[in-house]
């Protein structure tokens, strides 16, 4: 069964809301001068993995089965000394348990 939804479409009917949570995922990626575009693409792919891991922990900790993302916002900040991409994702999700 799918655990993460981005809308109510396809969600089961037999659920009960547990809690609404807000969280931030932050990470930094170092890169060599001239490699900035490759780091951007890799970092945005990585957000899916980090989000899945964070939601897995939240579901377990809160005794929930399903999460629905209500809001998400990803920000990218580039530092040039040293060459680092700082990426942060801000999320708001509703957690549900199956009845």
Helical residue percent? 25-40%
What is the residue-mean pLDDT, rounded to a whole number? Answer: 86
CATH architecture term:
2-Layer Sandwich
What's the total helix number?
1
Within the CATH hierarchy, at the fold level, what is the topology?
A: Translation Initiation Factor IF3
CATH class: Alpha Beta
**Termini separation:** 14 Å
- The SS-based structural class is alpha+beta
Strand content: over 45%
SSE string: EEHEE
Main β-sheet: number of strands, strand sense, barrel status? 4 strands, mixed
Strand line-up of the largest beta sheet:
1-3-4-2
Broad shape: elongated
Instruction: Flag low-confidence runs.
Output: none
Beta-strand segment tally: 4
Number of domains: 1
Task: Describe the protein's architecture and organization.
The protein is of the alpha+beta class and 99 residues long. The chain has a single domain (4-98), classed as Translation Initiation Factor IF3, CATH 3.30.110. Helices cover 27% and strands 49% of the residues. It contains 1 helix and 4 strands. Strand 3 and strand 4 (83-98) form a beta hairpin.
Attribute tags:
99 residues, alpha+beta, Translation Initiation Factor IF3, 1 helix, 4 strands, 49% strand, elongated
Concise account of the structure shown:
The chain has a single domain (4-98), classed as Translation Initiation Factor IF3. 27% of the residues lie in helices and 49% in strands.
List the helices and strands and how they pair.
Elements: E1 4-5, E2 15-30, H1 36-62, E3 66-80, E4 83-98
Parallel strand pairs: 1-3
Antiparallel strand pairs: 2-4, 3-4
């Amino acid at each position: 069964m799918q655990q993460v939804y981005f809308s109510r479409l396809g969600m089961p009917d037999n659920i009960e809301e547990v809690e609404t949570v807000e969280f931030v995922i932050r990470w930094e990626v170092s890169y060599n001068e001239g490699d900035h575009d490759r780091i951007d693409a890799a970092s945005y792919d990585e957000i899916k993995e980090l989000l899945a891991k964070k939601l897995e922990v939240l579901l377990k900790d809160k005794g929930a089965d399903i999460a629905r993302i209500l809001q998400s916002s990803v920000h990218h900040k580039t530092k040039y000394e040293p060459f680092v991409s700082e990426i942060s994702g801000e999320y708001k999700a509703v957690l549900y348990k199956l009845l």
